[in-house]
Amino acid sequence: MGGRSTHARTALSWIVGGWRHDPHPQPLPTRGRGVVVRRLAVGAILLLAAIGSGVWAYVDALGPLDLTAAEARSTVVLDRDGRLLRPYAAADGRWRLPVAAGDVDPRFIAFLKAYEDRGFDEHRGVEPLALMRAAGQWLRHGRVVSGGSTLTMQVARLLEPRDERTPRAKARQIVRAVQLERRFSKTEILDLYLALAPYGGNLEGVRAASLAYFGREPKRLSNGEAALLVGLPQAPEARRPDRFAAAARRARDRVLDRAMARGLITPADAEAARAEPVPDERRPFPMLAAHAADAALSERPGERVHRLPIDGRLQASLEALAREGAERQGPRLSAAILVVDNATGEVRAHVGSAGYLASERGGALDMTASPRSPGSALKPFIYGLAFESGLAHPETMLDDRPSRFGTYAPENFDLTFQGTVTARRALQLSLNVPAVELLAEIGPPRFLARLRQAGAELFLPAEAAPGLAVGLGGLGITLSDMARLYAGLARGGEVPPLVRRLGGAPATPGGLAIADPVAAWYVADILRGAPPPDNALAGRIAFKTGTSYGYRDAWAVGFDRRVTIAVWLGRPDNAAVPGLTGRVAAAPLLFDAFARFGGEPEPVIRPPHVLLATSATLPPPLRHIRKDQPKTVASTVAAPLKIAFPPEGARVDLGLASAGADLAALALKAQGGVLPLTWLVNGAPVGSASPRRQSLWRPDGAGFARVSVIDATGATDSVTVRVE
């Protein structure tokens, strides 16, 4: 800079060089005047070059634009439609939410330009007339009276905040404004202002201010609200509505006067806007699906925007339902609700507690992910495995009488017994003895293996081998896994992966089976006929309740073709709550949640090969679980029943894709067991009971098939094969 100043002085000296003071100057000859003019012109050029060189040196000294402030935004979690579920403060503790001009009411944009920068759309970052006016005021008053700043210059100041209001600081803003205009479009510059403008305290940007002062997004604002948001950034601390409501009102009214003068609103509109109340407190920011939001940030901490498949409106409604349900049951209780779209596996609502900030209810704990005892809620999967194995049918007769299984003697919840009932009725009434009888035939290890194969994580006591009590709640499982298993029943046995993030990989594995299609439909059809609670109509959804030992957990899980909803109530510390049952506490919430989901429930589609029969018309081996029949000598010495062909997992080529495929048949062969034998494929009988150990089955197409055989004593064996 010193060198360039020297050049300027040299230029001036050269311009006036040779001139001497003469008290009696003589007119210059024509040739002399021409020399002076030429010297003045060349000197002016040199002076302008020196000034320009100095300006460029000043610009170089400033360095490139620093956009750090613009990039330091708050992290936001959005629902499936882009609505805000939960924001998080930026690293510096400020609320600086992402926003664009398209997210803001157009009248706010109009008011902003009319009040702050009428020429914003035309100028190149600087308004010379406004700057000249500001400079004149500075010279006249000796201080800065008005800044003459454009919106672009204000953005420059927000990107590089400085406290001083001096000509040097103004020059810096001018240079930065020109740089901004060269680099960004007008819309992008406006977006920067909307995101960075200060609104008092730790609020920055119009979106954060609108949520804090009005409790809603700035997409729709009244005239008074738009004017208030325009007027606050000029003196954000002195005009904070929550501290200085009168000053905020005066600022708002000045904006309204300017908008009326510019013809943006009528006098009547301005008068109505002045009558609007000014908010006198800050509202809390949204905190919907707080547990799901925390999980999303934990999974991808570097992302600033997280999109979840949650429906924000449904989430808000179910959070209120969970809070009300827990409060009705008493103090220190929490509640959790999970809604799963059966077609996609997307989590449409995730209510982890009865209130995220309710410390007395353990609100910070996500009870959808906490293992709890399910009570009777796993019984449907015992029946599904029995139906799939050919051990029983919904119309099979079961005994509900006092029984002992070794040292284990189960009792029903009401301490009564129903006598002989169908499997359908036993499951609908949630009778314990028939469920334990079926589990004894299936075997607890096989039952637990099926649940694990379907992707469920089970929590068992470490000191004991699994026994029959696992069917009545003697293990732990999460609400999330329970919802997935029931969604599998709605999908024909295929358990869906849970999708917790839009555009991301599923959080849980998919393609796993909890039952074959026929068995899954049998269970769904039975549960659709379960007696509903007092606040609901019968036959609308398939559902099951559960109550854990000691009244610690109340469950209700229901589904139709569209959606599965799982509900849990209890104390997070696992303390007993006398009288807390699934039917009384959880089932009403389940049916209320379905009502809030909306639409008409749709029954699960019936697959082919379903055996529709009465108890009397069932094949003889399916009419009863015949454990009380005296064994014959032949049955005593008979080898165990086993399917000899086809073997488990076999792929059998029957030429189904070629001509004449309708004549292809699969030979079924068994060994051991007591005649006669009954064959079933996918739950449907193949012919009638036969004294022979083989049969023929003609498939109606290629695919997987579950082949089962039952002997005269009720012994069964099953294999899964693929026919082609």
From TrEMBL:
Membrane-crossing ranges are 40-59
Source species, domain of life: Bacteria
Catalyzed reactions per annotation: [GlcNAc-(1->4)-Mur2Ac(oyl-L-Ala-gamma-D-Glu-L-Lys-D-Ala-D-Ala)](n)-di-trans,octa-cis-undecaprenyl diphosphate + beta-D-GlcNAc-(1->4)-Mur2Ac(oyl-L-Ala-gamma-D-Glu-L-Lys-D-Ala-D-Ala)-di-trans,octa-cis-undecaprenyl diphosphate = [GlcNAc-(1->4)-Mur2Ac(oyl-L-Ala-gamma-D-Glu-L-Lys-D-Ala-D-Ala)](n+1)-di-trans,octa-cis-undecaprenyl diphosphate + di-trans,octa-cis-undecaprenyl diphosphate + H(+)
Per UniProt, residues of the Glycosyl transferase family domain are: 92-258
Record keyword Protease present: yes
One biological process term from GO is: peptidoglycan biosynthetic process
Name of the protein described by the UniProt record:
peptidoglycan glycosyltransferase
Which pathway does UniProt place it in? Cell wall biogenesis; peptidoglycan biosynthesis
What InterPro entries does its record include? Answer: Beta-lactam/transpept-like, Glyco_trans_51, Glycosyltr_51/Transpeptidase, Lysozyme-like_dom_sf, PBP_1c, PBP_C, PBP_transglycosylase, PCN-bd_Tpept
Q: What EC number(s) has UniProt assigned to this enzyme?
A: 2.4.99.28
Residue ranges of the Penicillin-binding C-terminal domain? 633-721
Q: What taxonomic classification does the UniProt entry list for its organism?
A: Bacteria, Pseudomonadati, Pseudomonadota, Alphaproteobacteria, Hyphomicrobiales
